[in-house]
Amino acid sequence: MSNPNMKLLYVVLALAILISVLAPFLASSDPDGLESAAEKVIGEERFAELEETEAAIDSPMPDYAIEGKGKLGEIIAICLGTIGILAISFGLGKIIKS
Amino acid sequence: MHIPDSFMPLSQALIYWAIALPFIFMSLRWARRDMDDMKIPILAALSAGIFAIQALNIPIGMGTSGHMVGAALVAIIFGSPFAGVLVLTLVLLVQGIVFADGGITVMGANILNMGVISGSIGYYGFVALRKRNIDIKVAAFIGAWLGLFISSIATAIEMSLAGTFPLVPGIVAMGTFHFVIGIIGEGLITAIAIGAIAKARPDLVDDKAVESSKEATL
């Protein structure tokens, strides 16, 4: 491969996969800034109501998890996302330039 | 700060799509003009890296967590805020559709907040500081922090317009949490990444805007 940036791609991909594998164990399960703000300013009850409202579409792996597959499912879900987005952006770049 | 669909009425969500679409279009135009076979691997690497790091919520105390957004990092490396818009649009599309992280109808608002606002403020903040000869890592830290902080305030205002949050308490809560998330999740990681890339591949950190202004003053 003559493109020196391919080496950068492999290094960053290795890092991204490492993060994807560790994230299910390391990531905080505390609510994020927006959810936490919502809990605080609109009350837990109303927030829970909004949280339970169905999303506009059904996602195949909601909350970065595969139903019934536990931590392994989470690892697989995040890894699939990482590799998927890599393929999409690589493909988009190629299509735009062709 | 991925807004879920239930936080915003459809009529307003569509308005943010209308605002975000021209930026998405311009980001595609940027890619057509600036992308080449050399740069495509960098775009792909950053997209994958940012998706992964967004899955890593860091605890910030106060029973709250947060993660990096990354638009500022992408914009700094490519020397254009449109690069940040493009990567965040792709990441938010995958997150929303596949992982139910961030809504579908409100995706325009999420692209506006995280892709356009945090990336543009992060990038132009970085460039302004570099022009004043501020160290590259310090400039990246402050730019990225400011971008995240301002985009959280914008989100709070949108939540107030949507009738979901009261305005002032919303701004105070969002501002407080993202002040801290911006330091740890955004500023620090952006500074470390820019520092590492500037050392390993100085050709990649696009300081063109800064360099040309320096030459002009010589």
User: What is the number of E strands of chain B?
Assistant: 2
Strand adjacency order, main sheet of chain B: 1-2
User: Please, how many helices of chain B?
Assistant: 8
Arithmetic mean pLDDT of chain B: 94
Instruction: Compute the separation of the termini of chain B in Å.
Output: 43 Å
N-to-C order of helices and strands of chain A: HHHH
For this structure, the CATH topology of chain B is Arp2/3 complex 21 kDa subunit ARPC3
Q: Number of domains in the coordinates of chain A?
A: 1
Biggest beta sheet attributes of chain B? 2 strands, antiparallel
**Count of discrete alpha- or pi-helical segments spanning 4 or more residues of chain A:** 4
Average pLDDT over all residues of chain A: 93
Question: Can you describe this structure?
Answer:
By secondary structure, chain A is mainly α. Chain A has one domain (5-97). Chain A has helices at residues 5-26, 33-42, 44-52, 70-97. In chain A, α1 packs antiparallel against α4 (70-97). The radius of gyration of chain A is 18 Å and the shape is elongated. The model of chain A has no long low-confidence stretch (mean pLDDT 93). By secondary structure, chain B is mainly alpha-helical. Chain B has a single domain, classed as Arp2/3 complex 21 kDa subunit ARPC3, CATH 1.10.1760. Chain B is built from eight helices and two strands; from the N terminus they run ααββαααααα. Chain B has a two-stranded antiparallel ribbon with strand order 1-2. Chain B is globular and about 45 Å long.
Characteristic key phrases:
heterodimer, A: 98 residues, mainly alpha, 4 helices, 70% helix, elongated, B: 218 residues, Arp2/3 complex 21 kDa subunit ARPC3, two-stranded antiparallel sheet, 8 helices, 2 strands, globular
